[in-house]
Amino acid sequence: MSETAIAHSVDWNEPARLRGIARRHRRDLRLKAIGAGALGLAALMLLILVGSLVYNGALAFQQTHVTLEFEISADHVDPAKPEAGNYRAITRDAVFRLFPDVTGRTQQRDLANLISNGVQYDLRDRVVADPSLIGSTLTLDVLVSDPYDQLAKGAIDRATPAENRRLGDAEIAWFDRLDAEGRISKPLNLGLILNADSRFPEQAGLAGALWGSFYALMVCFLLSFPIGIAAAVYLEEFAPKNRLTDLIEININNLAAVPSVVFGLLALAVFLGWFGLPRSSPLVGGMTLALMTLPTIIIATRAAVKAVPPSIREAALGVGASKHQVVLDHVLPLAMPGILTGTIIGMAQALGETAPLLLIGMNAFITQAPDSVMSPATALPTQIFIWADSPERGFVSRTSAAICVLLVFLIAMNSLAVLLRKRFERRW
Amino acid sequence: MIGYLFLLILVAAIAGYVVNRQAARSQAFGSGARFHSLPGFHGAYALLLTGLPAFLFVLVWLTFEGPIVDAVVMASLPAEGVAGLDAGKLSLIEAEVKSIAAGNVFGEPEPWKFAAAEYYTSLRGTFRAALWISVLLVCGIGLYIARRRVAADFRARHRVEEITSWIMIACAGVAILVTAGIIASLIYESVRFFERVPVAEFLFGLNWEPQIPLREDQIAGAGAFGWLPVFLGTIVITVVALVVAVPIGLLSAIYLNEFASARVRSIGKPVLEILAGVPTVVYGFFAILVVAPAIRGAGAAAGIDVSPNTALAAGGVMGIMLIPFISSFADDALSAVPRSLRDGSLALGATRGETMTKVLFPAAIPGIVGGVLLAVSRAIGETMIVVMAAGLIATLTINPLDSVTTVTVQIVTLLIGDSEFDNPKTLAAFALGLMLFIVTLALNVLALRVVRKYRELYD
Predict the structure, then answer these.
(1) Which of A187, A367, A424, B260 could form a disulfide with A337 if both were Cys (CB 3.0 to 4.6 A apart)?
(2) Cβ A266–B444 below 8 Å, yes or no?
């Protein structure tokens, strides 16, 4: 058979051959197009993901305020005990004065809901801080409550029938009147960063979550960085090849793939159950995250240490340094950029980790920022989870905004890692 | 408070370093003797001897202080207050006494609880004072011993290196400790669960209603703990995720590996890396904000009844999360195929596409399969997306348009806000966790084996 095949010469310009080649090339193009399409689809999904979050979150970076005059009369506030004053009445009066035509009890109650519930406490804090305000009239920009905030941002459609809308016609008319009087303003929403959590969307902010995440990450870093480096250096430079070190290596590789929720179960049973550490505390959160970050740091450190050429070690040993001195004075400094890059990436992963923190109770409702690693707190991702679960309309944009804040942190950390790698990593 | 204690130990250790180094220096200078070790090593020896024992001492003390104080206070309670109470009631009393001690008094507790709280506060104070004194003592003894050993022939460097070696071994051992901790805690709590619910019922039961009776005589609230419907739900969501992730991931890897220009590569790779870096809680919110309403809208337009928490939404978004995972594994596997195979195929006149589909891809299949197995393990263990986007009620169904629940969802919902491990409801979460750990571990081991076998083939 082979002889005939060789003897028979092939005419490549035969029409059937040409068609065959064209078909093969078409098939080639098709595969290329499908591949490009798949990659494009992945990019499109990323675009939709980021786009929808930015689009929704943009609303929360502004907050609607209304300018009101508060008459702090001595009738409502006793100068001897400013903290016990009737600030609720003062705030209500400030709103009612603008609408003398609204008299009915239910109508007045609706009208009082125009401003946020937190305004009275804000007013109280100001007067307690400066009792000389009693008797004067204070002009302040204060928060409007969430439905009006949504209205001002166009998130409530005026065209929907009144019974399906969160605000009635009368309420919208009140708001429009205030707007026409120039009392409505929409400044940058600093409360999103400066306030702690609240049940009222217009007051809720991320301060508690940011501090909680900061403390947890600090604990995580302080534990996982030294332990990770020590473990990696031992395994890479000192460990004899035996069953024990094999076991450690298998363990590290498996830990990297254990589901995060299992670490949460471990923390719940061991840290909270057996050691009795405080629930919801950044300390426990950080310890849990440290266990999860450890494999990442160990693997990165080992790669960085392995990349240091043996000639450096031999040179140092040759001039009389001990093995420990070689590692501490030469190998580690040279490997440090790689180690730091791996650590930052591990920290970024820890910052976004949610499930284990839920199990140790870092999803509690806490209205003040934590003041130490022992006090109850939330973290950025768990705060996102809490807000995503809240039914109020205002929390949808807050959640998106919180995600944007989280993503900004992650992008900053990853860029720093890339920068470190580009600037300092040496190739031999 | 404890922070200051660690600060004290740090300061003492640094002081030890300075003192000893100075001592070694002045001795060497004064006597002119040749020291075996540099002054810095004498300092480091003092640093370790001052700091390390004190540090370990504090850790051990803190581990045992809480339980001992609790036990002493509970033993001191008057007999008439606690006679005949079960463990649950006793722990309630303990919590109440502690909250009184912390200054939070609710209602009107009995006077003996106030007395207990006072005793608790004073006992804690005593323990803390004792801790401070002991730490100072331990630091002092360490420093004294180290200082006395400063001498020309003392091999400080060897000692320091020996100690640091042991510290490094201990750090490496943490990995074993963590695994052991995971296995021990899961098994311990699961055994307690299986004391209340038979193993066979858990493994083969077709009903999952994790409730506990609120009253003794409540029959309807008995609950059922068969994990099969929960596991089936996990599999449904995993399959949906793989249906999305495997084709897109593989095809983008093929494109990036074989066809893409350098410019497309430099854009495409970071896009996939960003997708991989997005936290899962963000994917979860994306699922409820965008994907679930879109699916519901599409279902309504097509006249199909779609439940609000479809497996399709949760699985689809999980698929997006897994795309970079699969594509990076496939890319690695394709790149690992020896150059000679590719060149040989091209030299025979095959097109690039034919080389890819007929030579490179089949050769890379073991590596790709390993990656897909790891992706399956990730999908089964993934928590936040399903907690936010999947359902809570376990139904025996394989319809992706229905609402299903998963193992991880059940673990989280059973444990949120509950810290007492004395009923089947909370313990069930640990049993589910054990199953999850076993399944993912098996998948990981299998995947690593497949990948390693394949590597040996070409190395």
Answers:
(1) A424
(2) no
